[in-house]
Amino acid sequence: MSYPDIVVAGGGNAALCAAITAAEAGKRVLMLEAAPKPYRGGNSRHTRNFRCMHDGPLSVLTGTYGEDEYYNDLLLVTKGNTDERLARMAIRGSQESQPWMEAHGVRFQPSLSGTLSLSRTNAFFLGGGKALVNAYYRTAEALGVEVLYEAPVTHIELDRDRITRVDFTHGGARHSLSPPAVVAASGGFQGNIERLVEAWGPEAENFLIRGTPYNRGDVLFNLLGQGVQSIGDPTQCHAVAIDGRAPKFDGGIVTRLDCVPFSVVVNKHGDRFYNEGEDVWPKRYAIWGRLVAAEPEQVAYSIIDSKSKDLFMPSVFPPVTADTIPELAGKLGLDPQKLARTIGTFNASCRPGTFHPTELDGLATEGLTPPKTNWARPITEPPFYGYSLRPGVTFTYLGFKVDETAQVQGADGPVENLWAAGETMAGSILGQGYLAGFGMTIGTVFGRIAGREAARYV
Length: 458
Ligand SMILES: Cc1cc2nc3c(=O)[nH]c(=O)nc-3n(C[C@H](O)[C@H](O)[C@H](O)COP(=O)(O)OP(=O)(O)OC[C@H]3O[C@@H](n4cnc5c(N)ncnc54)[C@H](O)[C@@H]3O)c2cc1C
Fold this sequence. Notes:
Blueprint: E1 6-9, H1 13-24, E2 29-32, E3 49-51, H2 67-78, H3 84-103, E4 108-109, E5 122-125, H4 128-142, E6 146-148, E7 153-159, E8 162-170, E9 173-177, E10 181-184, H5 193-200, E11 208-209, H6 218-224, E12 230-231, E13 237-243, E14 264-267, H7 281-284, H8 287-293, E15 300-305, E16 320-322, H9 325-332, H10 336-349, E17 384-396, E18 399-400, E19 407-410, E20 413-420, H11 438-457
Parallel strand pairs: 1-2, 1-10, 2-6, 10-20, 11-17
Antiparallel strand pairs: 3-5, 4-5, 7-8, 8-9, 12-18, 13-17, 14-15, 15-17, 16-17, 19-20
Helix pairs in contact: 1-4, 1-11, 2-3, 3-11, 9-10
């Protein structure tokens, strides 16, 4: 396409929602996706659900989930670090987006039972994020949206308050376009290990990235370098503890490990370092990413015995198994005597009581530092199992500052023809923490707004 009205940088949920909306408004849209076609869709293809407000039963969602309850949930996780106006727009927009998503090919299913109980608040995609992404691509292409794969945007020229040029590579050549309007929907920068190291220090070399390697922040840093306003803490990222054997990138949701509350967790020196039983796992799994990141070599080991093996969702990687603790230590690369001592001390501090795996049971250690305040049962019954844990980065918080029309803010006011949607502006709403399913809400609502506003401008 030689003269698109709108160029969309990115190929995930936010980019697709923007492209579809703009194409339906009659505009010629070109999407530039950095990834090859089989890997299109960024982190969106790893998702399972989106969080949706509803004043009554809506599609697969049960009961009601009102604006204020949703907003209060957001306040709790962000500790107030949000923009109320934008947050309420995203929340209100989610209700109206759900039927829009269905009308554009997304299919929903009732929530799965298991560790997460989200049937009232979160609508699950049938076939997961991959099916959602594929459905949107089909819809976009039927509307005439042109998609170039392996077409990373390398530079967006900002001249005072206007974008005048978009540079990208494709098919081994450099290209430049000067479209009337641009939407940036190219995610965060967690795929860029050098940038993570700058923000976090050398330990970031050992982080695993749960999603796509293509979200390198090239568009983000390029425009911030030209004076566009940023939002969100550049040194922070959302990280959870995942199986240490997960691949460096794109391990996705299956690499999570739910065994920590029933285990003893040690670092590479065989020492415990945090209360494994502080709270139920859905409320704690996000903090363990940071805890493991602070330990030597950014690795930890979760040890259980046969009593606990079937108490959590099975892991995708089989555990390391042994008949004795020293043997297990050897297989995990830990000092056998040290691990045996740590487990022995832990076992001696456990007290009799009633064990309830699904609730805070108060079964706590006595005289142990750090304590384990729930589910503390001696690890005594072979076989013994061990899993390694690593920090797994979900997304970074740094992004573009936008207003309620998703327009990007330059040094002296809005950039006339630039809008942003999705992870790349989510820091405008999600200053810290994370609310399950809110990433897709922000991308869907602001993607549609960005597409609408860009189309209106052209
Ligand atoms: C394992 C995992 C599970 C998750 N589960 C959920 C969930 O269930 N619900 C939820 O709400 N959120 C979830 N999230 C968060 C969610 O993935 C994001 O909030 C959401 O996908 C962001 O959408 P996006 O379109 O902004 O970014 P992405 O979907 O990541 O898309 C960014 C796109 O930009 C492209 N790109 C990057 N740089 C360039 C460039 N220079 N030029 C051109 N293209 C470029 C990438 O290739 C990619 O296609 C999960 C994240 C992970 C990692």
